[in-house]
Amino acid sequence: GKELKRIKDGEKDGNSFSFLYPNINDLEHSAQERLPKVSVVMPLKGFGEHNYSNWKSQLVSLYGGPLEFLFVVESTDDPAFPVVSQLILDFK
């Protein structure tokens, strides 16, 4: 009902986080720390031309709360493994 409309209206106005907070601009750093923890599970298989930049764009998310990324590969033999390993090192 009303909550879904508020979220959709917020998204139309450019607030992609309207499902979390009505006005993302009101979230000061201290308020952002109270946002829920988000775990992003990224199953990876193989490696393509744009994978590295796509994975990197996820790591620089604008989400202000606690955030963790879980990169999952089937095995260390997967072509994605050395690339995502380097990506993780680049962000440490």
Automatic annotation (TrEMBL):
Membrane topology: Multi-pass membrane protein
GO molecular function terms noted in the UniProt entry: ceramide glucosyltransferase activity
UniProt entry tagged with the keyword Magnesium: no
GO biological process terms held by the UniProt record: glucosylceramide biosynthetic process
Any one annotated GO CC term: membrane
Keyword line: Glycosyltransferase, Membrane, Transferase, Transmembrane, Transmembrane helix
Location of this chain's protein in the cell: Membrane
InterPro entries reported in the protein's UniProt record: Ceramide_glucosylTrfase
Name of this chain's protein: Uncharacterized protein
Source species: Taxus chinensis (Chinese yew)
Source organism phylogeny: Eukaryota, Viridiplantae, Streptophyta, Embryophyta, Tracheophyta
